[in-house]
Amino acid sequence: MTTRTIQKTVIFTRPFLMPRLGAVQPAGSYLVETDEELLMDVSFPVYRRVRTLMHLHEVSGDPRITGIANIDPDELEAALLRDALPE
How far apart, in whole angstroms, are the C-alpha atoms of residue 3 and residue 80? Predict the structure, then answer.
């Protein structure tokens, strides 16, 4: 099975919470990696998302990475939309 990893950086301007993270995360830049696998039973290249990982910082705001969490991409999108709302 052929897989690929897509990386992107998301930026939160305020502290945020996502259900799978369990704790409020500080504002800042976060690396998000999405692993996808190539489906072989179709006549053109199609990839299916297998997992999405988010590299986390210490809650104190220290930019050093302290862990990686498996996240739901829909929860990430919802958190980014909340972050974009005016205070």
Answer: 27
Among 27, 25, 35, which Cα is nearest to 66's? Answer: 25
- The radius of gyration of the chain from alpha carbons, rounded to an integer in Å, stands at 15
The neighbouring-strand residues paired with 51 are 35
The overall pTM is greater than 0.70: yes
To the nearest 10°, report the CA torsion of 55, 82, 73, 63. -10
Sheet of strand 3-12, all strands in order from the earlier edge strand to the far edge: 3-12, 28-39, 46-57, 65-71
DSSP for 15-61, written as a single string: -B--TTT-SPBPSEEEEEEEEEEEESSSSS-EEEEEEEEEEEE-TT-
Tens-binned pLDDT, residue by residue, of the chain (87 aa) = 689 999 999 999 999 999 888 788 989 999 999 999 999 888 888 999 999 999 988 666 566 657 889 999 999 999 999 999 997
